[in-house]
């Protein structure tokens, strides 16, 4: 069977009508934008499908949260699907841990162009057909509920069929696999099978050309013959995912080579910036450096608001003055004056003051020593301690209950880097 060139949009973690977390107080247009952000991002996914003239849209999990069943999210989904239907664009939906197949079947009205792919169909690859020709096949690698049932001696039978068509492997949101250095790694979590990771490795070994992930953590990696990709969330809900967010247009040539173009569609963008202040730094130097850092970042497409989290470390008079709310407010005013006319988006600034060294006054020496000791421990033992705490949390009795699955997943997949940053921020506040 010969290959045919085609194009599709890969989106994940729409999280429709879910609130943004950690924005701080918002007012007026900014608050309204935050309330609409996920819906606007979904509309951007649909418009990207139309403008790119794609053959189909692939959604890999967590399009909504079944626990809230927001009417607005359901209406937005259905309207988007209907718009794609009028333009003859197919949609393939793979449920995640927050939007299980039962919720889709019970709650969302799906037009004829939408195909819902559940774990029950994992043994049968799904052909994507255009004008009587097979463009690609969708292969369910693993899901949040995957186990070893119905495997044969060499694993799932689905991997045994390897025709000349282009294969897209599916690893939707909530699947207990994380990626380190481009390789699938099993979650170290009680009661969670490593079968999903084994399946991911098998898919790579069998040469699945494109592996579509859905966790919402941006990733693109070439692992031997497989291109592994997660577009990240359509709209980031917190500073955990910073930078531009949206979806990906995947262009597959007749030779089977895939090219990925990331398309920014999220109206709100988070930025996490670390800045070191020296003892001799003055206000003008600080504001100028901050302005240059902002101008180095280019606003993408439909971005309207940046929430900028500044992590400032150092020492000296300027650094010490940032303890005061009035000084912080003055810094933002000076920064925005410096940026006047330079950028096209609105900005909200948040400050994390990260104490690295405290050399004066005398009464702070003990706190300085505690903080330095903490940072030394964090640098030397942080990774090991985080893993130990993670295991202890996951082994507690309360978290074994079925209702705690989202908490288990959050603990298991929490970024070590993010945990270390937050630990340093808390230490800087209490030991300062």
Notes on the protein architecture:
- The chain is an alpha/beta fold and about 425 residues long.
- The protein has three domains: about 5-265, Purple Acid Phosphatase, chain A, domain 2, CATH 3.60.21.10; about 270-350, no CATH class; about 355-430, no CATH class.
- The chain contains ten helices and 17 strands.
- It has a six-stranded mixed sheet, covered by helices on one side.
- Helix 8 (about 365-395) runs antiparallel to helix 10 (about 415-430).
- The protein starts with 5 loop residues before the first strand and ends with a helix.
- About 35% of the residues are buried.
Structural category is: alpha/beta
CATH superfamily membership of the largest domain: Metallo-dependent phosphatases
In the predicted model, the low-confidence regions spanning at least 5 consecutive residues are 149-153, 356-368
β content, as a range?
15-25%
Largest sheet: 6 strands, mixed
CATH architecture of the largest domain: 4-Layer Sandwich
Q: How are the SSEs placed, and which strands pair?
A:
Layout: E1 6-11, H1 28-51, E2 56-59, H2 71-86, E3 90-93, H3 101-107, E4 114-116, E5 126-130, E6 133-140, E7 166-171, E8 177-180, E9 183-186, H4 195-205, E10 210-213, E11 219-223, E12 226-230, E13 246-252, E14 258-264, E15 268-277, H5 283-295, E16 305-314, H6 317-321, H7 325-338, E17 346-355, H8 365-394, H9 405-413, H10 416-430
Parallel strand pairs: 1-2, 2-3, 3-4, 6-7, 7-10, 10-12, 15-16, 16-17
Antiparallel strand pairs: 1-13, 5-6, 8-9, 11-12, 13-14
Helix pairs in contact: 1-2, 5-7, 8-10
């Amino acid at each position: 069977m010969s290959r045919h060139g085609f194009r599709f949009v890969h989106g994940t973690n729409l999280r429709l009508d879910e609130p943004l977390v950690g924005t701080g107080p918002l007012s007026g247009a900014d608050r309204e934008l935050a309330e609409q952000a996920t819906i606007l991002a979904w509309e951007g996914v649909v418009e990207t499908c139309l403008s790119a003239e794609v053959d189909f849209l692939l959604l890999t999990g967590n399009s909504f949260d079944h626990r809230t069943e927001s009417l607005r999210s359901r209406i937005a989904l259905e309207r988007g699907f209907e718009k794609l239907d009028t333009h003859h664009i197919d949609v393939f939906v793979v449920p995640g841990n927050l939007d299980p197949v039962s919720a889709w079947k019970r709650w969302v009205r799906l037009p004829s162009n939408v195909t819902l792919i559940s774990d029950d169909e994992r043994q049968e690859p799904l052909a994507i057909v255009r004008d009587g020709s097979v463009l690609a096949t969708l292969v369910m690698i693993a899901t949040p509920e995957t186990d070893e049932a119905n495997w044969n001696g060499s694993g799932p039978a689905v991997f045994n069929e390897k025709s000349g068509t282009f294969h897209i492997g599916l690893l939707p949101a909530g699947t207990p696999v994380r990626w380190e250095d481009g390789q699938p790694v099993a979650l170290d979590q009680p009661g969670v099978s490593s079968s999903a990771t084994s399946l991911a490795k098998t898919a790579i070994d069998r040469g699945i050309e494109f592996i579509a992930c859905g966790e919402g953590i941006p990733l693109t990696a070439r692992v031997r013959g497989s291109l592994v990709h997660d577009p990240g969330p359509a709209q980031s809900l917190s500073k955990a995912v910073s930078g531009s967010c949206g979806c990906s247009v995947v262009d597959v040539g007749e030779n089977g080579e895939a090219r990925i173009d990331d398309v920014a569609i999220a109206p709100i963008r988070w930025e996490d910036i670390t800045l070191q202040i020296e003892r001799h730094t003055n206000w003008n130097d600080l504001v100028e450096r901050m302005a240059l850092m902002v101008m180095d970042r280019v606003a993408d497409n439909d971005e309207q608001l940046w929430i900028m989290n500044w992590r400032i470390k150092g020492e000296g008079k300027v650094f010490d003055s940032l303890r005061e709310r009035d000084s912080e407010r003055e810094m933002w005013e000076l920064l925005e004056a410096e940026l006047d006319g330079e950028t096209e988006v609105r900005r909200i600034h948040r400050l994390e003051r990260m104490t690295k060294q405290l050399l004066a006054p005398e009464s702070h020496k003990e706190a300085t020593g505690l903080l330095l000791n903490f940072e030394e421990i964090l640098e030397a033992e942080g990774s090991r301690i985080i893993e130990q705490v993670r295991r202890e949390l996951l082994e507690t009795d309360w978290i074994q209950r079925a209702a705690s699955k989202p908490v288990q997943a959050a603990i298991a997949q929490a970024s070590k880097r993010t945990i270390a940053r937050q630990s340093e921020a808390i230490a800087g506040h209490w030991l300062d």
